[in-house]
């Protein structure tokens, strides 16, 4: 697993040496992985004393997740101070789930989103947050100014860790589209510059209900819901989730 703590994603994929292994495989991790796979594939039913903790401090993201999940999965939200990591998207997400499960000492669900430009071999990818902060919507468009190919895909990765000793399980959703000049409300990240395939509206211009049917987030969450339905987890709730 190639990940390191990083606060300035300036050289993503520029050198294999820029990534450092921070977690080695061991007998105990293999045991955790086996247990996690059993619990998600018809193994023994597991009960938990609290709902799943969805780790986020983003109110808009939380609103979407609640709208998509409804009452299908009992969860509560919590903002945690997790380190920023560098590496491949799924490994970043899994490591964040491990760290969050230790802090919460219970089941957690973490999410990472990527906006990947095909002309740039997947960049900005998991570093879209920093690219957006530094360049804005116009700057993101300018990254593709020299390229005819404006195609891109939005990717969402949810990682579920059932506890500190469990190997996280990942769920990935993708929506293809293209990068366009910003249109629509600008209060939710890069939504104004992403036009999903088959639509003439950006994410920002779409009605919420329509976006939540086809978004990268909804596609990943549909896999999360299917996993919970088949695994038969039992969560004690107090009605506050």
Automatic annotation (TrEMBL):
Record-listed Mg(2+) binding positions: 84, 112
Catalytic reactions of this protein: dITP + H2O = dIMP + diphosphate + H(+); N(6)-hydroxy-dATP + H2O = N(6)-hydroxy-dAMP + diphosphate + H(+); ITP + H2O = IMP + diphosphate + H(+); XTP + H2O = XMP + diphosphate + H(+)
Region (Disordered): 21-43
Residues annotated for ITP binding in this entry: 56-61, 96, 112-113, 188-191, 211, 216-217
UniProtKB keywords: Cytoplasm, Hydrolase, Magnesium, Manganese, Metal-binding, Nucleotide metabolism, Nucleotide-binding
Record-level Gene Ontology MF annotations: dITP diphosphatase activity; ITP diphosphatase activity; metal ion binding; nucleotide binding; XTP diphosphatase activity
GO CC annotation, single: cytoplasm
Entries under InterPro entries matching the protein: ITPase (IPR027502), ITPase-like_fam (IPR029001), RdgB/HAM1 (IPR002637)
Keyword field contains Iron-sulfur: no
Required cofactor names: Mg(2+); Mn(2+)
Coiled coil feature spans: none
Protein's cellular compartments: Cytoplasm
Record-linked Pfam families: Ham1p_like
CDD domains, sorted: HAM1 (cd00515)
GO biological-process terms attached to the record: deoxyribonucleoside triphosphate catabolic process; nucleotide metabolic process
Cofactor note: Binds 1 divalent metal cation per subunit; can use either Mg(2+) or Mn(2+).
Entry EC no(s): 3.6.1.66
First-tier enzyme category under EC: hydrolase
Its job: Pyrophosphatase that hydrolyzes the non-canonical purine nucleotides inosine triphosphate (ITP), deoxyinosine triphosphate (dITP) as well as 2'-deoxy-N-6-hydroxylaminopurine triphosphate (dHAPTP) and xanthosine 5'-triphosphate (XTP) to their respective monophosphate derivatives. The enzyme does not distinguish between the deoxy- and ribose forms. Probably excludes non-canonical purines from RNA and DNA precursor pools, thus preventing their incorporation into RNA and DNA and avoiding chromosomal lesions. Pyrophosphatase that hydrolyzes non-canonical purine nucleotides such as inosine triphosphate (ITP), deoxyinosine triphosphate (dITP) or xanthosine 5'-triphosphate (XTP) to their respective monophosphate derivatives. The enzyme does not distinguish between the deoxy- and ribose forms. Probably excludes non-canonical purines from RNA and DNA precursor pools, thus preventing their incorporation into RNA and DNA and avoiding chromosomal lesions.
Xref: HAMAP family: HAM1_NTPase
Summary of subunit composition and partner proteins: Homodimer.
NCBIfam families, A to Z: RdgB/HAM1 family non-canonical purine NTP pyrophosphatase
Similarity section: Belongs to the HAM1 NTPase family.
Protein name per Swiss-Prot or TrEMBL: Inosine triphosphate pyrophosphatase
């Amino acid at each position: 697993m190639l990940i390191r703590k990083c606060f300035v994603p300036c050289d993503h994929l520029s050198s294999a040496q820029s990534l450092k292994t921070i977690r080695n495989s061991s007998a105990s991790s293999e045991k955790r992985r086996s247990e996690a796979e059993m619990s998600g594939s018809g193994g023994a039913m597991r009960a938990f004393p609290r709902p799943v903790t969805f780790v986020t401090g983003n109110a808009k993201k939380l609103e979407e997740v609640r709208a998509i999940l409804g009452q299908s999965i009992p969860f509560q939200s919590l903002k945690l101070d997790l380190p920023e990591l560098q590496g491949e998207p799924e490994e970043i997400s899994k490591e964040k789930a491990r760290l969050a499960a230790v802090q919460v000492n219970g089941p957690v669900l973490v999410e990472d989103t990527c906006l990947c430009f095909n002309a740039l071999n997947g960049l900005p990818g998991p570093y879209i947050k920093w690219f957006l902060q530094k360049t804005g919507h116009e700057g993101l468009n300018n990254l593709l100014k020299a390229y005819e190919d404006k195609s891109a895909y939005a990717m969402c990765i949810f990682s579920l860790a059932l506890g500190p000793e469990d190997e996280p399980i990942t769920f990935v959703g993708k929506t293809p589209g293209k990068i366009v000049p910003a249109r629509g409300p600008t209060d939710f990240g890069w939504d104004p510059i992403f036009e999903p395939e088959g639509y003439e509206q950006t994410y920002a211009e779409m009605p919420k209900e329509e976006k939540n049917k086809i978004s990268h987030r909804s596609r990943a969450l549909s896999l999360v819901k299917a996993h919970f339905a088949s695994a038969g987890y039992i969560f004690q709730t107090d009605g506050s989730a």
